[in-house]
């Protein structure tokens, strides 16, 4: 399937005229949704997923253009190709939504997530945690005599892997931001 | 052009500038400043309803019968929550309405103040868009944008929540711009490659059918004209959903009648057997498709819709065309003519031969005998006696609604107001008030069941106060007829709570409100009684006592495809399987 980009007001060759060959296999997609930064816009997006029974695996949102009142919502979702198409079309109907990008099909994209991970321990376990943190290029951002807080950035899979390794070494708490993503190149 | 005025004055000014001539509403504490402004002007008429749900349905009736957005004005809290059913109804049927709600002052929002409700939160999922306006300076632009969003693209309901301090405060008012500055601009023109592909399919199709819906009517009168031209020139048969009746005339010779769960045999059989289905402004609703995996199995499917999310939502289509119906039809005609006006004449002749055989089944036949009025007969007589009038028909929801769709004919768009998607009992009566306001000289009839009608009967006060001569034609079977029918077919004839043992005397009820009541239970008196209703200059409640256990046929049972229709009582035994029973 070629690049699928939903822009309102485009006059011809709409993305909807693509005819994807739908299958019943679920896929993970990362969507970037550019919205007006106005009251209730996040509730509209989340409400859509709730009302129509779509999945949200992760969601991040922040203002990206203060002067233009724009926010970017990054949603990781799972569904069959038909459901993914519906999600994009339904997002496109929301009045304050400007653009919907499916980063999974629009060519290569960079996906990053940040996590803070608290580990408790002493002796050999403490040393091992530090050694692994070094391998994963995680930074120590807080330290006491019996604990560390690591800051790690990477793909969700990398963070999963790091958290799994920390579990036997005394994992206490995890805070994750959800995925931020951009397409590669121009 | 910018002028300083209070928020309340801005509301009235914006309505005037948007061409609004009537507002349906109900006052309350949080909208008093706006009511004060309404009091001091004569350009906009205000119709005082008896319940906020009535205001929204009346605005819907006004909108459906004129093509212009309807406007309702209600107070905060209960005023807003009472409007929710009407908003949802308008959302599902794509009806453009603008609802203005009062709100507690901005500094009290969130304090659980008297008559405070989270109106934009509650109505977020039942409006196309909504706004809470917190600054008077933003009010004018929001009001104009609301009218644009309600009417542009796929129409729908919008709501503006206006706190009382914003109504009192003074700000800058700007009139609507000649050229819309809104960022919301849905695509109108269809993709030409897809249109070419469709025309090529039309040229060779042996068994084509047009399946049209409310989108044709929403697109405006030009769309109906273009549709008629396309049908006449190609000679293809045409059927329509409940929402699309009137776009193509019922008296036209290519007309197969309504399709769907209670649609005509020939229409559903043709949908099932066709090889090219051209969906124009309909949305493959479950009342239309029946069982999805057996829906029209051998056809190439084309879908013309202004809303991209309608495409492939329910039925996977081969040629999707996103655009406004009138724009797309114009291009189809242009391309089809330029390519030589070709159709598969031989295939079409055979196709019509098959359709004529289905038509011979005469699926709407019934026998009126004895001393009890059959509901079908009542509608047949109503049709015969009102057909020549400048007539608008509203309905409530249930058996009578389906019979009205089957037995009344509509030759023009915007003449048929019914609650299709949401199926709102209580829609018809207030809707008829909105229609009558828009068309004061016309004959406006609400075909009702007694149970639906009672849901918004308080609006008799509105009809009498504003001298709106709406005719309430109640097919009274003393039952919730459609519920009773499903209980008979699906639930072992256990009629759980589907009748009323305490119905009012409708004639006395009419008189209590200062209207006219007519009672008829004898087929021999029916014509005279209907004529008396038509000729009476004022609102009428017509209590037509009909056969209590009549079922509505044809019927596609839940979970069955189009070619498994039930045609009459004899075929109903065990017709609906266990899987069908869980569907609605």
Automatic annotation (TrEMBL), chain A:
Pathway: Amino-acid biosynthesis; L-valine biosynthesis; L-valine from pyruvate: step 1/4; Amino-acid biosynthesis; L-isoleucine biosynthesis; L-isoleucine from 2-oxobutanoate: step 1/4. InterPro entries: Acetalactate_synth_ssu, Acetolactate_synth/TF_NikR_C, Acetolactate_synth_ssu_C, ACT-like_dom_sf, ACT_dom, AHAS_ACT, AHAS_small-like_ACT. GO terms for cellular component: cytosol. GO terms for biological process: isoleucine biosynthetic process; L-valine biosynthetic process. It is an enzyme of class 2 (transferase). The keyword Amino-acid biosynthesis applies. Gene3D superfamilies: 3.30.70.260, ACT-like. Chain A, domain 2 (3.30.70.1150). The keyword Hydrolase does not apply. Residues 30-105 form the ACT domain. PROSITE patterns: ACT. Pfam families: ACT_AHAS_ss, ALS_ss_C. It catalyses: 2 pyruvate + H(+) = (2S)-2-acetolactate + CO2. SUPFAM superfamilies: ACT-like (SSF55021). GO terms for molecular function: acetolactate synthase activity; acetolactate synthase regulator activity. Belongs to the acetolactate synthase small subunit family. PANTHER family: ACETOLACTATE SYNTHASE SMALL SUBUNIT (PTHR30239), ACETOLACTATE SYNTHASE SMALL SUBUNIT 1, CHLOROPLASTIC (PTHR30239:SF0). Catalyzes the conversion of 2 pyruvate molecules into acetolactate in the first common step of the biosynthetic pathway of the branched-amino acids such as leucine, isoleucine, and valine. Dimer of large and small chains. This is Acetolactate synthase small subunit. It comes from Thalassovita litoralis. The lineage of its organism: Bacteria, Pseudomonadati, Pseudomonadota, Alphaproteobacteria, Rhodobacterales.
Automatic annotation (TrEMBL), chain B:
Keywords: Amino-acid biosynthesis, Branched-chain amino acid biosynthesis, Magnesium, Metal-binding, Thiamine pyrophosphate, Transferase. Its EC number is 2.2.1.6. Residues 5-120 form the Thiamine pyrophosphate enzyme N-terminal TPP-binding domain. InterPro entries: Acetolactate_synth_lsu, AHAS_TPP, DHS-like_NAD/FAD-binding_dom, THDP-binding, Thiamin_PyroP_enz_cen_dom, Thiamin_PyroP_enz_TPP-bd_dom, TPP_enz, TPP_enzyme_TPP-bd. GO terms for molecular function: acetolactate synthase activity; flavin adenine dinucleotide binding; magnesium ion binding; thiamine pyrophosphate binding. It catalyses: 2 pyruvate + H(+) = (2S)-2-acetolactate + CO2. It is an enzyme of class 2 (transferase). Residues 397-544 form the Thiamine pyrophosphate enzyme TPP-binding domain. GO terms for biological process: isoleucine biosynthetic process; L-valine biosynthetic process. Its cofactor is thiamine diphosphate; Mg(2+). It holds the Pfam family TPP_enzyme_C. GO terms for cellular component: acetolactate synthase complex. Binds 1 thiamine pyrophosphate per subunit. Residues 195-331 form the Thiamine pyrophosphate enzyme central domain. Pathway: Amino-acid biosynthesis; L-valine biosynthesis; L-valine from pyruvate: step 1/4; Amino-acid biosynthesis; L-isoleucine biosynthesis; L-isoleucine from 2-oxobutanoate: step 1/4. The keyword Metal-binding applies. Belongs to the TPP enzyme family. This is Acetolactate synthase. It comes from Thalassovita litoralis.
């Amino acid at each position: 399937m070629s690049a699928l980009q939903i822009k309102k007001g485009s006059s011809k060759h709409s993305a909807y005229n693509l005819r994807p060959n739908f299958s019943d296999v679920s896929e993970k997609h990362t969507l970037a949704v550019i919205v007006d930064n106005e009251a209730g816009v996040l509730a509209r997006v989340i409400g859509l997923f709730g009302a129509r029974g779509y999945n949200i695996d992760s969601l991040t949102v922040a203002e990206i253009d203060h002067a233009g009142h724009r926010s970017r919502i990054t949603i990781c979702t799972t569904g069959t190709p038909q459901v993914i198409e519906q999600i994009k079309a339904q997002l496109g109907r929301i009045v304050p939504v400007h653009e919907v990008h499916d980063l999974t099909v629009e060519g290569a994209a960079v996906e990053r997530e940040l996590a803070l991970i608290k580990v408790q321990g002493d002796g050999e376990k403490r040393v091992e945690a530090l050694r692994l943190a070094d391998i994963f290029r995680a930074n120590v951002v807080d330290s006491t005599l019996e604990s560390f807080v690591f800051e790690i950035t990477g793909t969700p899979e990398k963070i999963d892997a790091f958290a799994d390794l920390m579990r036997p070494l005394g994992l206490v708490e995890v805070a994750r931001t959800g995925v931020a993503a951009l397409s590669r190149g121009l | 052009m910018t002028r300083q005025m209070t928020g309340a004055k801005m509301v009235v000014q914006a309505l005037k500038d948007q061409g609004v001539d009537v507002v349906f509403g109900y006052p309350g504490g949080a909208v008093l400043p706006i009511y004060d402004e309404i009091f001091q002007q004569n350009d906009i008429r205000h119709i005082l309803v008896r319940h906020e749900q009535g205001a929204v349905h009346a605005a819907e009736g006004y909108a459906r019968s004129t093509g212009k957005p309807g406007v309702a004005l209600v107070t905060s809290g209960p005023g807003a929550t009472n409007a929710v059913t009407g908003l949802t109804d308008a959302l599902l049927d794509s009806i453009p309405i603008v609802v203005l709600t009062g709100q507690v002052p901005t500094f009290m929002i969130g304090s659980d103040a008297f008559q405070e409700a989270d109106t934009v939160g509650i109505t977020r999922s039942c409006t196309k868009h909504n706004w809470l306006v917190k600054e008077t300076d933003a009010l004018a632009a929001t009001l104009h944008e609301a009218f644009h969003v309600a009417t542009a693209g796929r129409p729908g309901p919008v709501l503006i929540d206006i706190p009382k301090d914003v109504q009192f405060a003074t700000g800058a008012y700007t009139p609507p711009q000649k050229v819309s500055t809104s960022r919301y601009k849905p695509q109108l023109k269809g993709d030409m490659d897809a249109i070419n592909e469709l025309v090529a399919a039309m040229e060779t199709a042996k068994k084509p059918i047009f399946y049209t819906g409310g989108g044709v009517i929403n697109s405006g009168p030009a769309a109906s004209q273009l549709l008629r031209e396309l049908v006449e020139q190609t000679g293809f048969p045409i059927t329509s959903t409940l929402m699309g009746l009137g776009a193509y005339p019922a008296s036209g010779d290519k007309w197969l009648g309504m399709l769907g769960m209670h649609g005509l045999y020939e229409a559903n059989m043709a949908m099932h057997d066709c090889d090219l289905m051209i969906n124009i402004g309909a949305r493959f609703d479950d009342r239309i498709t029946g069982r999805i995996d057996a829906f029209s199995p051998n056809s190439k499917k084309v879908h013309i819709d202004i809303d991209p999310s309608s495409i492939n939502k329910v039925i996977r289509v081969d040629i999707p065309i996103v655009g406004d119906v009138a724009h797309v039809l114009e291009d189809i005609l242009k391309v089809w003519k330029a390519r030589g006006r070709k159709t598969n004449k031989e295939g079409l002749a055979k196709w019509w031969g098959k359709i004529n055989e289905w038509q011979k089944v005469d699926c709407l036949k019934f026998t009126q005998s004895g001393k009890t009025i059959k509901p079908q007969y009542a509608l047949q007589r109503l049709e015969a006696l009102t057909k020549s009038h400048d007539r608008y028909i509203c309905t409530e929801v249930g058996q009578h609604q389906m019979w009205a769709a089957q037995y009344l004919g509509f030759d023009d768009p915007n003449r048929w107001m019914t609650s299709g998607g949401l199926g709102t009992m209580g829609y018809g009566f207030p809707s008829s008030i909105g229609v009558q306001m828009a068309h004061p000289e016309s004959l406006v009839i609400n075909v009702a069941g007694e149970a639906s009608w009672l849901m918004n009967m308080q609006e008799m006060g509105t009809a009498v106060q504003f001298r709106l001569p709406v005719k309430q034609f109640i097919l009274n079977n003393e039952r919730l007829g459609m519920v009773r029918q499903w209980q008979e077919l699906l639930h072992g004839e256990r009629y759980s709570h589907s009748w009323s043992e305490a119905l009012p005397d409708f004639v006395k009820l009419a008189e209590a409100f200062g209207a006219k009541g007519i009672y008829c239970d004898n087929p021999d008196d029916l014509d005279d009684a209907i004529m008396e209703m038509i000729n009476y200059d004022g609102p009428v409640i017509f209590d037509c006592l009909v056969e209590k256990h009549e079922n509505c046929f044809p019927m596609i049972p839940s979970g069955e495809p189009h070619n498994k229709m039930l045609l009459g009582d004899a075929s109903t035994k065990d017709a609906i399987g266990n899987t069908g029973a869980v569907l609605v």
